[in-house]
Amino acid sequence: MTNAMRQQAAPLAPRSIATPIEARQLADGLMKVMNDLLAIIEQETALVRAGNIREAIKLEPPKADISKRYITMITLLKLSQNYLASTTPDLLQALRKHHDVFRAMLQVNLTVLATAHAVSEGIVRGVNAEVQRRNAPQTYTAAGRQAQPA
Fold it and tell me: Is the pTM of this model over 0.85?
């Protein structure tokens, strides 16, 4: 692998912001990414609640892409936190509030997914128990009675 190929393959490391304009762009970008992610998660939650698991699975690629952008933006925010706190504390506070709402909505999604998982696991266990019961050998005891499975 040549040096040029390595440079293309490695993503650029985010750098800390240095101007109020960059701070505003970061805040706007992060809020947009959180809103985009919430929109797709709300859509996924609605599909799972309705039992449309296959449709919900189709949302995975765009959700993964938006999640990557979110992680990049959060990394940049962490690198720039000191600058934001000293120059634009109102903006930082607004980001924190927006992020709190974002986390609460994610928690709702996780609860729905956990419930769907528990329900589907119960169904699978029930089907498995019934299949095992039907596949149990039909044997008889020495007295000619049907043997009960152990």
Answer: no
